[in-house]
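Schema walkthrough. Field components (list of strings):
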Amino acid sequence: MMRRPTIADVAKLAGVSRSAVSFALNDRPGLAKETKARILAAAEELGWQPSRPARALSLGRAGALGLVVTREPDLLGVDPFYPAFLAGIETVLAEQGDGLVLHVSSPERERSLYERLAADRRVDGVLLTDLRIDDPRPALTASLGLPTVVVGRPEWSGGHCAVELDDEPAYVEAVRALAKAGHRRIAHVEGPPEFRHAQRRRQAWERALAELGLPPGPLRPGGFTAEGGARATRELLALAEPPTAIVYGNDLSATAGLAAAQQLGVSVPDQLSVVGYDDTPLAQFVHPPLASARADAQGWGAAAARALLTVIEHGSAPDVRLPPAAFVPRASVGPVAAGSPGH
Amino acid sequence: MMRRPTIADVAKLAGVSRSAVSFALNDRPGLAKETKARILAAAEELGWQPSRPARALSLGRAGALGLVVTREPDLLGVDPFYPAFLAGIETVLAEQGDGLVLHVSSPERERSLYERLAADRRVDGVLLTDLRIDDPRPALTASLGLPTVVVGRPEWSGGHCAVELDDEPAYVEAVRALAKAGHRRIAHVEGPPEFRHAQRRRQAWERALAELGLPPGPLRPGGFTAEGGARATRELLALAEPPTAIVYGNDLSATAGLAAAQQLGVSVPDQLSVVGYDDTPLAQFVHPPLASARADAQGWGAAAARALLTVIEHGSAPDVRLPPAAFVPRASVGPVAAGSPGH
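Field assembly_structure (string):
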């Protein structure tokens, strides 16, 4: 027999069902002792081996990619990026029967998780997301010999392959649209400053203001959270000269900011224009519908998975640049009102 | 040497770094040929084996649990349940070094995914979530000999261990609170009717109305989505006798429904009371803050993972009943206005 024997072959030789073979080979209860013995004898006769561990031993392939997400579960739970990104990875892995090993980690456990993934050969490579300032992970996975793809800009990748979807153009577009509508005091509520992408969004806002000759706008931390977005908005609206427009780090903080303004009696967009980022499914169904930026997280996951499979196979892969995020104007953005202090 | 040799032992014997050992054992480029040969000789001398595949071959353990989520990526992306649930699973797996193999599947691929997980011994057992009416999965995983825990009610489990967190009490409480506030026309916007939990939420609403002696309220499909919640709300408010309160299948449809009412000039809660389910991080930061129901998804994930590890170890585990979800009243619920047609 040239091909590798399958469970079906074992079942045929032992004269039992495939599920009985599965029970016997996995040493699970529920089979008569002699049936189990007959199955094991047939498996031995055919030289049957469990295919995944066998492949891992003979080819050095685990047949799985790894993703360690280091975020608070709460922050993860409201970010539509990851589920769409995971779905994109899956579309690629499904083609070749590989799996995804996912960990949700605290910062403290992160390092040991990567070490274990490498030592146990549980995955063939890893995707790094949410790159941070001075992120230790690119160097760590390199030292572990773990094939790696960085989900973000090439200059964050520490020499690994990078798969980028740029968020900067959407922020520049948003600030330009607001300036065109007459806004001069445009604030930003930024995401966690340790994240590279949050930092990049803030810098895009700063640069766009400078390019338009507008004064630097007020900045508040929002942490990508609803609570942070609401708090930052209340602080901004309490300023002696409040902004007439706020660009947020993501939709979650923008949606909460919109509600916080309304609760203070500030009308959106008449007295305040609001822009998010992510174009979450909810964005167009809040009141008023939320201007945002659309990024193809699913396509990003697929591209990152494809790049990582190439790195695993060939040792390296070219960087990938996906189409950047695009500003999506909606009714939460309007012209500066005649009576506004910002007019 | 009694204990299993580690990469550190190999590194010591070969006089190289641990990462060099990792490179050599994983057959990755970047090492001098003679260094690699020395490392492989040291590994052979010590009898080093990659621990994960070795364990899988010798003990029949893959060291991983499996979860196949059969949902549209869009629906997954906005549901805070899964990330919190995954984080809960992780807290348990982290204790013993196991991993989670996650698949996001279409209904068509679902069956073959479970078959492959079983055939490849890629996981030691699976968690079944989003149980459906006539769900084929409990019987399928039983026939595959895959240890299984059903995340839901025991009567859905097909004989597997069930880990339940009941959503019914929160719906009954919500309807009672609305009735106490004077509401008599209380509508429901239900989730995908193929989901057991969506069906159970609808039945809880029906039963609570009946127990309170209230007429059966209008029902509309909402699909757990923002779009579905907005559409259902517009339909309900266009009725000859519109409801004065709407209880939704989840927060996403409720948040969109709230905005849809506001867009029609219907004031919440003065003219319409609104209740969601999930208590998403955004719920208390919309305007007005959304009454909802709180369920401990992270605790649910942890309990389900613990139960599955027990099933894997001992062949079975007792069903687990977690504290049920609790109604969280907020400003989106108010008394029926004097001028309301429902008064």
